[in-house]
Write the structure tokens for this entry.
Amino acid sequence: MNSPEKEKLHILFLPRWYPNRYDPMFGLFVHRHAEAVALNHQVSVVYVNEAGSDQMKVYEINQAEEQGVFNTTIYYRKSSLKPGFLSKVINIYRFFNANFVGIKLIKKNTGNFHLIHVHILTRLGLIALWFNIANGIPYIITEHWSRYLPLTNGFKGFWRKKLTKTIVRHASAVTTVTDNLADAMKNHGLLNPNYVVLPNVVDVRLFNILHQKTNKPIRMVHISCFEDRSKNISGLMNSFRKLSKVRQDFECVLVGDGLDYQKIKNSAVDLESAGLVRFTGLLQNQELVEELAASDFLVLFSNYENMPVVILEAFACGIPVVATRVGGIPEMVNKENGLLVDASDETQLVDALDAMLGSFKMYDPILLRESVRLTNSYEAVGEFLSKLYLKSIR
């Protein structure tokens, strides 16, 4: 194998979240990272997902190349044997076995790899650690999961913590999409000397400014997965009701689908009939861009977040943001590009929305877009990761 410094590197992505046949939006940000890396290097992805017990084969393997990324997706049949612990053991075995089968296929079809990039711990980190010990292949970790944050308190279990600490310690680098998440991981004892904040990717060619908007009423947009526990869309609806007592020159377009979509929609019949809210359901690609770019500003009222990429997409479209002061949002939103409020404080949100309805035109769309282009474009993130990979290999 030639020296990696003299040729394109071969990077193996092992993501826990990735677009699949059940959910084409799941882990889309990981897919975008892979595409960014593919601008400079060879990228192979092995993604394993559980399938229903009605799947005919134990393993179903799909391979395809897309945007320079060679994807190997393996669906393993979920075991439903009794007792339950036996099924759990079988499913864990099938998960790990499927990953090793996929990696073997990658090596056969596209050659050896120089580095493993794990997205989301802990299981896939064990595989990377194995290749590091057995073959000396370095690995880096990118963590997106909010389970480490104090509010969610989802990082539990003696062995999970023990194994995760070992995996993190032996990684060449650990990247998170916010300083907030990095600090939360360190507070759990997940220590590594090379923590780095990795920007999310925004397709600035797709998300662009729509000039000469004349929305009447003023249009705000909310985009989310409609999971009320985290996104607090019910609190957003309450705030609209309070705001409507002061002014009614606004409309909020709610984009997305998910667990609580129908419940939220049913609870907002009064707002919908008054023309204050409009539900679109799930929008993707150009439809999503058009709805976002046509709006005057974005609003999020989340109880907790990590790094919502929709905020960056809003900036790329030249529109400001009203959002809560949680997770990594304060690392993105400031007085130059939006307004921040405390989580669950509906009074603050009403005041912020009232202020933004009167001031959204004062934000410079060009400056908002440029802030994203310089750090979050495919080219910028691809270059960022190239430097990190070369440093890790050396």
User: Anything to note?
Assistant: The chain has two domains: 4-201+377-393, 218-373. Residues 218-373 form a domain with the Rossmann fold fold (CATH 3.40.50.2000). Residues 149 and 184 are 6 Å apart (CA to CA). Confidence is low (pLDDT under 50) at residues 1-5.
